[in-house]
Specification:
The protein is α+β, with helices and mostly antiparallel strands. The chain folds into 3 domains: 1-45; 47-114, Winged helix-like DNA-binding domain superfamily/Winged helix DNA-binding domain (Arc Repressor Mutant, subunit A), CATH 1.10.10.10; 117-172, 2-Layer Sandwich (Dna Ligase, domain 1), CATH 3.30.1490.190. 58% of the residues lie in helices and 13% in strands. The chain is built from 6 helices and 5 strands, in the order H-H-H-H-E-E-E-E-H-E-H. It has helices spanning 2-45, 50-61, 68-77, 84-96, 136-151, 168-171, and strands spanning 100-104, 110-114, 120-124, 130-133, 162-165. The strands form 2 sheets. A 3-stranded mixed beta sheet has the order 4-3-5, with no helix packed on it. The chain has a two-stranded antiparallel ribbon with strand order 1-2. Strand 3 and strand 4 form a beta hairpin. The longest helix has 44 residues, at 2-45. The protein is extended. The structure holds zinc ion (ZN) (3 copies). One zinc ion binds at residues 124, 126-127, 129, 166-167, 169-170.
Length: 172
């Protein structure tokens, strides 16, 4: 009698747990969908102006990250002559909308590029050309170092470094 009662209680517990995990699964699924939708809407909500479109297409067409002055020079060749403040404002709007990202190198000059997954850069000391370096093994090793530092009491929020030297063109 007791054993039967116990098994009923036990089974209803299992049943409840299964229900709860189903509910949790659907809630998390909805959260993921919602995030995706809100991100897309944010991109769509950003009105496309001729200048904004042109900046995006310039960044997209160049294989290397660019400075505002470099972008401005190309804009000028296309018959557009916005002042620096206007371009900077556009860059900030595009960053807020996750369409581009910025980073600064050792000289402090800010470079912009189309939004990509986390990666690092190689800077040529001769021609100053920047190459994007995305390497899984590198990130895994950095992650291990970060974990060890955390164990030692450091609080790591992000990592930021670049490689320097001579690019392939400048070495030959
Ligand atoms: Zn070079
Ligand atoms: Zn890059
Ligand atoms: Zn990294």
């Amino acid at each position: 009698m007791f054993r039967k009662r116990f098994s009923i209680v036990f089974e209803s517990w299992i049943y409840l747990l299964m229900q709860l995990s189903c509910i949790y699964f659907f809630i998390s699924l909805r959260c993921i969908c919602f995030e995706k939708i809100s991100h897309n809407t944010m991109e769509k909500n950003l009105r496309s102006t001729p200048l904004r479109t042109e900046i995006l297409s310039i960044l997209d067409s160049q294989a290397t990250p660019m400075t505002v002055s470099e972008i401005q020079k190309i804009l000028n060749t296309k018959g557009m002559s916005p002042n620096k403040t206007t371009v900077y404002r556009q860059m900030e709007t595009l960053i807020t909308n996750n369409m581009i990202q910025k980073f600064s190198l050792r000289d402090g000059v800010v470079h912009y590029e189309i939004q990509k997954l986390h990666h690092h850069h190689f800077v040529c000391r001769d021609c100053e050309r920047i190459t994007c370096i995305a390497d899984r093994a590198l990130e895994e090793n950095i992650h291990k170092i970060e974990q060890n530092l955390m164990k030692d009491g450091f609080h790591i929020q992000k990592h930021n470094f670049s490689f320097e030297g001579k690019c392939r063109t400048c070495t030959t």
